């Protein structure tokens, strides 16, 4: 990938996509192709065909996604339809128009609900998926297998990266749609504002006019001036990766790793995707305490065991990406501080 190569980032407005754009620009890649949803409907096959015909991208980062958040159950159809359609359109047209290399962002939800930690790439398709995330997980598995199958049949160079909980600047902080860390950070931030009676800032953050209604809204999410309630026991363990680390890993793989590096020529070609993570997990209780301290909320932290915990721990086995020469740089405590600094200065 040369500095003047035509590089398309699908999903450049998302958490992963914005980090990719910033990282690529810092490295001197200037010929970036960026299209908003209004400019390019990735669900429309003909629009995607016309885009590839006109733009002729040489390299593609497929980060466009309908993410799996708190609305897992209510959006089952959307998760499987939108994600598979976007993937099918971009991966197939990348093949048809001779894209030199594609990086597809998979997910830890590709792995079974019951599997040994740390989770190896070989665990995919060995058992059933987590119930609430089945539609999302199946969509991501489909994308990973599509990349692998096109490589085998057509000689393409399409690589899938599997990741766990993503966080970082420009994350989605919506309580009902965000991932774990952004949601926790915003909860404690708003609790701190309540604690300090900063009503105007609360209304601005929530985009509401009535402080009475704002307090009722926050109470529905377990947020008050005295305490923050977290669902579950806090014992479930999670691995987190900062968006800047993910972008660094994706660009490293794009520049240095080929499909031929990911399988043994004497064995069946399968599970060629790569886990991207830190190889370090934390309990939700530990993570929540980190966020609370970083934000500076002085009230109580309450775990509600009557509310559901997630059904599984998730820790990636990152030995494959380590053997290929990449390791994460941002530790969780530093990453939380970076995310909160961004939220205070640039977040809405």
UniProtKB/TrEMBL annotation:
UniProt xrefs under Gene3D superfamilies: NAD(P)-binding Rossmann-like Domain (3.40.50.720), UDP-galactose 4-epimerase, domain 1 (3.90.25.10)
Chemical reaction(s) catalysed: GDP-beta-L-fucose + NADP(+) = GDP-4-dehydro-alpha-D-rhamnose + NADPH + H(+)
Entry keywords, A to Z: Isomerase, Multifunctional enzyme, NADP, Oxidoreductase
Site description Important for catalytic activity, residues in chain: 107
Domain NAD-dependent epimerase/dehydratase: 7-260
GO terms, biological process: 'de novo' GDP-L-fucose biosynthetic process
One Gene Ontology MF term: isomerase activity
Family matches, as InterPro entries: Epimerase_deHydtase (IPR001509), GDP_fucose/colitose_synth (IPR028614), NAD(P)-bd_dom_sf (IPR036291)
EC code: 1.1.1.271
Residue sites binding NADP(+) per the record: 11-17, 140
Pathway annotation from the record: Nucleotide-sugar biosynthesis; GDP-L-fucose biosynthesis via de novo pathway; GDP-L-fucose from GDP-alpha-D-mannose: step 2/2
Catalytic residues in the record: 136 (proton donor/acceptor)
Binding site for substrate: 187, 231, 238, 309
PANTHER family: GDP-L-FUCOSE SYNTHASE (PTHR43238:SF1)
Family: Belongs to the NAD(P)-dependent epimerase/dehydratase family. Fucose synthase subfamily.
Functional note: Catalyzes the two-step NADP-dependent conversion of GDP-4-dehydro-6-deoxy-D-mannose to GDP-fucose, involving an epimerase and a reductase reaction.
Protein name: GDP-L-fucose synthase
Species of provenance: Campylobacter jejuni subsp. jejuni
Record gene name: fcl
């Amino acid at each position: 990938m040369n500095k003047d190569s035509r590089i398309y980032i699908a999903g450049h407005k998302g958490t992963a996509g914005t980090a990719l754009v910033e990282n690529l620009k810092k490295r001197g890649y200037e010929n970036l192709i960026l299209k908003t949803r209004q400019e390019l409907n990735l669900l429309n096959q003909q629009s995607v065909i016309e885009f590839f015909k006109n733009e002729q991208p040489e390299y593609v980062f497929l980060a466009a996604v309908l993410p799996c958040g708190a609305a897992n159950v209510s959006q089952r159809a959307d998760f499987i339809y939108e994600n598979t359609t976007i993937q099918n359109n971009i991966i197939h047209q990348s093949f048809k128009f001779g894209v030199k290399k594609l990086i597809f962002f998979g997910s830890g939800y590709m792995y079974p609900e019951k599997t040994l930690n740390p989770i190896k790439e070989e665990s995919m398709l060995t058992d059933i998926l987590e119930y609430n995330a089945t539609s999302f997980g199946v969509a991501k598995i489909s994308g990973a297998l599509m990349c692998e199958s096109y490589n085998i049949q057509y000689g393409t160079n399409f690589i899938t990266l599997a990741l766990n909980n993503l966080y970082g600047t420009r994350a989605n902080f919506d309580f009902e749609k965000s991932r774990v860390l952004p949601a926790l950070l915003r909860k404690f931030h708003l609790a701190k504002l309540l604690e300090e009676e900063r009503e105007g800032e609360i209304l601005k953050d929530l985009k509401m006019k009535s402080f009475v209604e704002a307090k009722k809204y926050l109470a529905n999410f377990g947020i008050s001036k005295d305490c923050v309630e977290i669902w579950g026991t806090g014992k479930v363990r999670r691995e987190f990766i900062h968006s800047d680390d993910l972008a660094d890993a994706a660009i490293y793989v794009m520049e240095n790793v080929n499909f031929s590096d990911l399988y043994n020529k004497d064995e069946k070609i399968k599970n060629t995707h790569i886990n991207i993570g830190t190889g370090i997990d934390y309990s939700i209780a530990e993570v929540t305490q980190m966020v609370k301290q970083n934000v500076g909320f002085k009230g109580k932290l309450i775990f509600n065991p009557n509310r559901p915990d997630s059904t599984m721990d998730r820790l990636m086995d990152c030995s494959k990406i380590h053997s290929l020469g990449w390791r994460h740089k941002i530790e969780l405590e530093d990453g939380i501080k970076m995310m909160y600094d961004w939220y205070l200065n640039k977040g809405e």
